[in-house]
Specification:
Number of strands: 14
Helix content: 25-40%
Order of helices and strands: EEEEEEEEHEEEEHEHHEHHHHH
Radius of gyration: 33 Å
Distance between the termini: 80 Å
Number of domains: 3
Strand order of the largest sheet: 1-8-5-2-4
Strand content: 25-35%
Length: 374
């Protein structure tokens, strides 16, 4: 049972003598995964009143973003995902037009699950045509009601710990293997099969897979705050975790996975900053720089005291700050080699990430370090 490309306009009223039945499906909305084909009958049809028989020579129309399955007695006998009008010929082998849009293994799945073609076989008793939505279907929301672990790896600060995060966003899916979806999920639907019928199950499985997917992301030393910039990596990780249930069982794959918000527990965030601060201040010169900044702020606070500035106190503070700053950026720094300079800049970056330095302070200190070795 195969499909042959029909001439353009073969299904129109003017050329109605060229077809017996015309099967089509209106545009499938984003909430519809599968729908039974609609049939328009011409004067040439020989099976009036029999909905589930396809007359030899009938035309089947396929629109862009659709895949047609022809089912005979509950078994798939042919499929087509290439847009166009096709003439149904019961005497030919299956056409199997995938249009380059379906899963790579769909022909192998057809061989395992489809009905084998035989010449002169028994007459068809129950034939149906189903249309499947193969467009990207966006708008599936997810959110972690309870925090999930996210491993934070930062070799510069010698950090390897789990923090608790809450994550919210949306993902999109696409039906890449309609044969698997028909066989294992929807079967012979009377009218349409909507995405809502699977939403609850898929959301539960998605959230279960989120934790191991996070583990793959963190192994690449991507911080949780950087996830919105790594959505493709997250989608790939989720596909890998869900492959056995979604791709191999239902013929569904994740196309994209967006992150609208990801927030760490406040205590965990404070702990991370403390660890990064401690690691950054192990460097003597950066530690002195931080202390010098603290002394400088103390001097500003003293000068702005409502009870009047303590000139002596300000002078002492400024003297200490100047001495510490001189210790950092004095002549000793001029002899540092490139490796030492790089190490200091990396530690400055750690201090910035830990919230100890602003972007402007980081840039200024980096500039001073560079000037000291030129």
């Amino acid at each position: 049972m195969g499909l042959i490309h029909a001439a353009i306009g073969a299904a129109t009223g003017v050329l109605s003598d060229q077809w017996k039945e015309y099967f089509y499906c209106d545009s499938l909305s984003a909430d519809v995964l599968a729908a039974k084909g609609q049939k328009r009958t011409s004067l040439k049809s020989s099976n009036y009143g029999t909905d589930n028989i396809i007359t030899n020579g009938s035309v089947i129309s396929v629109a862009d973003g659709q895949c047609v399955l022809i089912v005979d007695n509950g078994k798939v006998v042919d499929y087509c995902a290439e847009p166009g009008d096709y003439k149904y010929d019961a005497s030919t082998e299956p056409s199997l037009f995938d249009g380059g849009k379906l899963a790579d293994n769909i022909k192998k799945v057809f061989e395992n699950m489809g009905k084998r073609f035989t010449f002169g076989g028994e007459a068809p008793k129950d034939q149906r045509i189903y249309y499947f939505n193969t467009k990207e279907l966006p708008g599936s929301k997810y959110g972690t009601a309870n925090p999930v672990p996210f491993r934070v790896v930062d070799p510069r600060a010698n950090i390897d710990i789990d923090v608790s995060v809450k994550c919210f966003g949306e993902y999109s899916i696409r039906l890449t293997n309609p044969i698997l979806f028909y066989t294992n999920v929807c079967g012979n639907v009377a009218n349409v099969y909507r995405k809502a019928e699977l939403d609850a199950q898929m959301k539960s499985e998605f959230l279960t897979a989120l934790q191991p997917a996070f583990a793959q992301i963190s192994a690449r030393q991507i911080r949780y705050s950087e996830l919105p910039a790594h959505t493709q990596e997250l989608a790939d990780a989720m596909n890998e975790q869900l492959s056995s249930k979604w791709r191999d069982l239902r013929g569904i794959e994740i196309v994209s996975c967006g992150v609208n918000s990801i927030v760490a527990d406040e205590k965990d965030e404070d702990m991370l900053k403390s660890l990064q601060r401690a690691a950054a201040l192990k460097d003597p010169e950066l530690g002195k720089g931080y202390l010098a900044g603290q002394f400088g702020q103390a001097a500003v606070d003293a000068a702005n005291n409502e009870n009047g500035s303590d000139v002596l106190g300000v002078g002492i503070v400024n003297g200490v700050a100047g001495g510490v700053a001189g210790g950092i950026y004095g002549g000793a720094a001029a002899g540092d080699d490139t490796a030492a300079f790089k190490a200091k800049v990396e530690k400055l970056a750690m201090m910035k990430e830990a919230g100890l330095l602003t972007e402007e302070e980081f840039a200024a200190m980096k500039k001073e370090l560079l000037a000291s070795i030129l």
